[in-house]
Amino acid sequence: MLARDAHVPKLCWQTSDVRAVGFPNGFFDVVVGKGKLDALLVGEWDPWTVSSGGVHTVDQVLVPGV
Q1: pTM of the model
Q2: Rounded to an integer, what distance in angstroms lies between the CA atom of residue 55 and that of residue 46?
Q3: Where are the domains of the chain?
Q4: What are the backbone dihedrals phi and psi of residue 46, each rounded to the nearest 5 degrees, phi first?
C-alpha cells in the first residue's frame, strides 16, 4: 500500500493493534471499519464497481443528512 499510494502525499498508512492505536481521544472525526463496508455492500458483485443502490446504502450510513 505504501508503494501503491506513494503519489498521494497526504495519505499515511499505519499498522497497529486496534485496541491500542496510540492516538488521543478525539483525534479522528470518523473511523470506518472495513467489515462495516463489507456488510453494507454484501449484495455487490464487484467491490470496485459498486451499483448506484450500493452507493446510496453507504451514503445513508456515512453521510449525514442523506
Answers
A1: 0.50
A2: 13
A3: 1-65
A4: -130, 115
Q: What is the 3-state secondary structure (H, E, C) of the chain?
A: CCCCCCCCCCCCCCCCCCCCCCCCCCCCCCCCCHHHHHHHCCCCCCCCCCCHHHHHHHHHHHCCCC
**Cell matching residue 43:** 449484495
Encode pLDDT of 27-41 as tens digits.
Answer: 887 777 778 888 888
Angstrom distance (rounded) from CA 54 to CA 25: 31
| Contact (Cβ atoms closer than 8 angstroms) between residue 60 and residue 53 | no
- Cβ–Cβ < 8 Å for 52, 43: no
